[in-house]
Amino acid sequence: MSAQGVAVLLSWLSCCGSALWRYSSNSPSYHIFSTRSTITLEYEGTSFLEWSVPGTCSVKNKSSPRTELRCSSPGVHTIRPIVVGPDSEEERNLSVQSSHICFLWYYRVISFFHNFTQVIIVWIYDPENADPSEILRNANEPSLNSIILSKQLATLGQKPTIFTSLQRKVYFPESKMKNGTWHISVPMTTDDVLKEIKGNQVAFQDCFIADVLFLLTFPLLTMPEIPDSLPITSPQGSQLILAWATCVLSSVVVVADMETFQTNDSFRTWTRIRVPPNILTDDERHNVSDVNISWDGIFFLINGILYIKTFTAFKRLGRNENLPDGGIMGISSRKWCWARHLLKSKIRSIFAVWTKSELYLGYPLLKFMKIMTTEKLKSLLNISPTDTLTIHNVEYTGHPLEIALLLSYCSAYTVNKKIYVVIYNEDTEQWMNQDFALDVPSDTFVNAHFLYSALPELVLWDKHRVYYCYHNFTETGVIQTPTEFGNLSRLSQNSTIHIIFIDYYGNVVVKMENNIMFYFKANIKDAVKLHAWTNSTLKSAVSMSSSGLMYLIYVFENGTIRPQEYPLRLEAKSVTFNSREKCPYVAFLNNIFSVFFFLDKGQNVSIWTQIVYPENVGLYIVVESYGPNILQETYQVHYEVALGYCTKTMTVTFFQNVNYEAVDDYFKLQHQNTGLLLLHMRPSDSARPCPISQKVFQIAVGCNPHKYIAVKGFNKKECLQHDFFYHIEKSYLRNKPSKNLRVKYNWKEYGCPLRLDFREKFHPLVQLYNENGYVEDVEVNFIVWEIHGRNDYSFNNTMKKSGCLNEAQTWKSMIELNKHLPLEEVWGPEFL
Q: For the CA atoms of the chain, what is the radius of gyration?
């Protein structure tokens, strides 16, 4: 957050509570934190004397609680406020880099609905010399400094380009700059939302521009505040309840005990969500226990009943939507965004609703389906019908097609209960009981979040402890702490766990109700306590920004809400610095530039991965896969040692080796060898200081639904389409009708007719296309048939001239063999 933003925020944060201090920079998300950066220090409290900084750093006013810090040399610098009295404030070890990244891309978006395009206006700005509106991300045009900087770099050859991470598309700016800005037009989309602005490798005064990753979806609208509507809230004194849209992280709903807030831009702007009078009682309006958000609207759970708020109505859901009229225990939606996936049968659900004994899955347009009951689950788990089994909680896994049920089991002879985990695959419709059981007291409620991984991995928590399940439930236990045996409440002044935040990079933050936070990473089994950042009396929540980074949300007593960026990477480095914990490897590299790969027949996918580590450490690269056993793989490993470091390079090639010739059931074999695999490339060992190593991706084995074939030469744009009919002489028709056949030409399906000289032989060239355009010419054999029943055509070669040893299949023989089938189905690959 900018210095100006922090100044406003601190006027709210410093109202009460214990002393603490924090810092900020002008660079969004602390992207630039270097020797060139101005670091703003803020002390919150009444005992401040002065700042203690090392000699390599300088402060603007040493005795001011709010001042500016600059460090002239890179490295880790210990900063601490000196206070009155015997107690001392905690110190931070700020990691300041020496970087040639000095400038950033600024962008704003204008949407045009008449042609469903968005124009992205881009310019370059220097965070250390920018206009306040640019730092606060609400500028409509560049400042004078930014105009000069953008034009100067443009003369040196700089030009921005937008890349889409999911569909790998590229968009270029218009040829001329306009007032120091570039204009780039992109289509509106809901499935290619992750974009990145990249520039050329051009430097100005030894400074480069950082690439920026951002989320751009189809324009979303916040629900309007309707006059005379009433607040809908959680119970008085309760913690914030938060939900965000899975693939649109900037779309968030927060329920507080005085209002409900909604945003589509991570709370840079927001509105209040209220409900019409006379629908809910006052007690019901103030008793929201859960919230969720989807394209259909915002869902509220109140007293076991599900409601939906749309732009036009507030409605109770029940038996008309195939849901129970009461007794609903919770609602859950997907946490990880998989914009693309392969689903062989039906559409996948968008959220789950459950009672103690029934599970319902929700689909678009408010369609619900009951898919399981605890009575059926007892048979699956071999549990006695007299024992008690209830649905304790439901959570979507890291797999795009799976959902996990946490089941509570207790018998008449025990005082504790066991928590079991069962995973359901929406594609195969299989239920898989996991080798896991957690014993907890009967009055304990357990939450869970699955990690962003290929194998099922999750963390669970009650009020005081966090439990881990790594590597498909083969490693389980309690997340440990240096003292108190993992009891986080004892390390946080007897507070209880409020939220656990997990990001795409494997970071895990445990936020307590009094805003103390703990930190660990995926596959790490112990946590450390982070520095105090937020006053203990302030209501706060944790969310994920559009770039996948953590930020904090504060709700104030005056009914307003405000976000604040949180430097998780810097704070984690600070608390682990004195522990001397080191990353076991130096670098982990790969060529995984997409999270989704389609693998069709005859194709393969090759992945290159490299790890560099100190000699004698003994690391290796782990390849984890989860899904049906339908792929084979080959490995090539290259190993070298130089200057005390080892380098292992591994190339993995995934492919299929299925013979479809002369099989009894072609489509059955194809179905059996089609499916979705999740793969994860990671080092064999890791630690908290390690850089990002999470590389999870999908391989969808089967046919891309966006792939299609077309005959070369036909197009749909280079002719005037009109009603065009032609007649086929009755004597040329196979069934010998009594009159000629009148046929209307289908422009939409076939495109413009192809002009040919009737004296020339015609051989159709079939070409393959996908959503990005032409792929390749189809070089395999194919079948051509006449759809209207003509029989006056002939062929250039006979079977004998073509080299056939035996009589091949013909239309005549196949029609005779399959009289019960329509013409377009009598001959196909299943008959070969």
A: 31
Question: Tell me, what's the pLDDT at 4?
Answer: 47
Task: Return d(Cα 493, Cα 130) in angstroms, integer.
Answer: 42
Contacts of 397 (CB under 8 A, 6+ apart): 403, 404, 423, 450, 456, 458
Under DSSP, the state recorded for 699 is E
pLDDT at 832: 61
Distance of CA 755 to the CA centre of its chain: 48
**Both tokens assigned to 432:** 């898989």
Q: Is the separation of the CB atoms in 339 and 355 below 8 Å?
A: no
Amino acid occupying residue 267: F
Q: What is the pLDDT of residue 301?
A: 98
Name the segment(s) of the chain with CATH classification 2.60.40.
Answer: 3-96, 101-215, 587-701
At 7 the pLDDT is: 46
* Contact of 631 with 598, CB cutoff 8 Å: no
Residues ≥6 apart with Cβ < 8 Å to 726 = 742, 743, 745
Q: Are 779 and 771 in contact (CB under 8 A)?
A: no
Query: Can you list the positions of beta strands (E) in 374-506?
Result: 388-396, 402-410, 416-425, 430-441, 447-450, 458-461, 466-470, 475-478, 497-502
CATH pick for 587-701 out of 2.60.40, 2.40.10, 1.10.10, 1.20.58: 2.60.40
In DSSP notation, 276-337 reads -TTSS-HHHHT-EEEEEEETTEEEEEETTEEEEE-SS-EEEESGGGT--SS---EEEE-SS-
Among residues 272, 269, 279, the alpha carbon closest in space to that of 225 is found at 272
**662 Rama sector, left if φ>0, alpha if ψ -120 to 50, beta otherwise:** left
Residue ranges of the chain with pLDDT lower than 50? 1-4, 6-8, 10-17
Gap between the Cα atoms of 612 and 619, Å rounded: 9
What is the dotted CATH code of the domain comprising 101-215?
2.60.40
Tell me which amino acid residue 476 is.
T
140 in Cβ contact with 148 (< 8 Å): no
pLDDT recorded at residue 491:
95
Residue with tokens 């602005």: 197
What pLDDT score was predicted for residue 830? 66
d(CA 669, CA 513): 54
Q: Are strands 161-164 and 170-171 parallel, antiparallel or unpaired?
A: antiparallel
Distances (CA, A) of 636 to 297, 480, 610, 683: 50, 38, 12, 17
Q: In this structure, which topology does domain 3-96 adopt according to CATH?
A: Immunoglobulin-like (2.60.40)
Token reading at 304: 């076991």
Q: Which two tokens stand for residue 321?
A: 């939507």
**In the beta sheet, which residues pair with residue 518?**
510, 529
Q: What is the pTM of this model?
A: 0.89
> Quick one: pLDDT at residue 826?
80
* Alpha carbons within 13 A on the beta-carbon side of 461: 24
What would you measure as the largest C-alpha separation in the chain, in angstroms? 109
List, in order, residues 6 or more apart from 55 with CB less than 8 Å away.
Answer: none
| Chosen CATH of 324-576 out of 3.40.1280, 3.40.50, 1.25.10, 2.120.10 | 2.120.10
